[in-house]
Amino acid sequence: MGQSTCSHETIGQSTSSHENIGQSASSLENIGQSTCSHETIGQSTSSHENIGRSTRSHEKIGQSTSSHENIGQSTSSLENIGHSTSSHKNIGQSTSSHENIGQSTSSLENIGQSASSHENIGQSTSSLENIGHSTSSHKNIGQSTSSHENIGQSTSSLENIGQSASSHENIGQSTSYLENIGRSTSSHENIEQSTSSLENIGLSTNSLENIGQSTSSLENIGLSTNSLENIGQSTSSLENIGKSTSSLENIGLSTNSLENIGQSTSSLENIGLSTNSLENVGQSTSSLENIGQSTNSLENIGQSTSS
Question: Are the C-beta atoms of 111 and 131 separated by less than 8 Å?
Fold first, then answer.
């Protein structure tokens, strides 16, 4: 992604996958069971793939699926849209796929400047690709799946999602923030400048407080700082990271994996079972690879999947 921001909070079962993101930020809070894997990240806070300018907000989604690919400037997942705005509220079982739209109030494909808002959706699927300027807002979603690829400047915000999955790869500048996670695992590899600690570290600071069962492994780190507080069962592994900051606080069972990160910041707080920087997530999995500049924030997600 070019410039992208994604906000996820309170996620139940969630997985996020992002690839090839320019400028992106990712913030996840209150995650139950979550897994986050980051590989080859430049400067990233989230995991998105080739995103231009995009903003996406999801809150309280029932069963929903969203796929975004090749987005220029967008706040939603659409494909090749000119000027479009879409607003959906109180939907039971719904699927929306739009392609090649000029000026429209909906979410489709080939969108230039577009905004999409979805609220109170039961079972829904949305697929958008190649978006210029777009904004998407989803609230009260139960089961949701979202896939974003090739996005320029994008912002994604998800809140109150049931079952969710997010996968991020190839991110340039990214920042990841996780708080209140249930089961979480953190693994970082190929880090240059990172706030974490472990093997082959140049300038690094590691602070752990009130940890139950925790394991942290970092390899080949330049400048790294890692702060963990109040962790139950946690594992952190960082390798070959450029500029990265990782902070974990109050983690129960957590796993986080980052590899080949340029400039990245990851903060986890209050994690129960999680593998990503997410907040209030039940069951969630997040994988970021090769991220440019990206920001991802998920809040209050139940069951959701994002690719």
Answer: yes
- Give residues with Cβ within 8 angstroms of 237, minimum separation 6: 186, 187, 188, 189, 198, 215, 216, 217, 218, 219, 256, 257
Q: Are 36 and 178 in contact (CB under 8 A)?
A: yes
Distance CA 118, CA 116 (A): 7
Would you state the structure tokens that stand for residue 133, as one six-digit string?
A: 């300027």
What one-letter code names the amino acid at 100? Answer: N
- What does the alpha-carbon distance between residue 239 and residue 40 come to, in Å, rounded to a whole number? 10
- Radius of gyration for the chain, computed over Cα atoms and rounded to the nearest angstrom: 17
- Nearest one of 181, 197, 162, 155 to 48, comparing CA atoms: 155
Q: Are 121 and 94 in contact (CB under 8 A)?
A: yes
DSSP state of 99: -
Give the CA-trace dihedral at 44, 49, 51, 55, to 10 degrees: -70
How many other CB atoms are there within 10 angstroms of residue 254's CB atom?
36
Nearest-angstrom CA–CA distance, 124 and 141: 9
* Cross-strand pairs, 226: 246
Whole-angstrom distance, CA of residue 167 vs CA of residue 305: 9
Q: Are 190 and 41 in contact (CB under 8 A)?
A: no
Per-residue pLDDT reduced to its tens digit, 106-162 = 333 333 333 444 443 444 444 434 334 434 444 444 444 444 443 434 444 444 333
Q: What is the DSSP letter of 113?
A: E
Collapsing DSSP states into helix, strand and coil, what is residue 60?
Answer: coil
Per-residue exposure over 78-106, b if at least 16 CB sit within 10 Å of its own CB, e if not: bbbbbbbbbebeebeebebebbebeebeb
Rounded mean pLDDT of the chain? 38
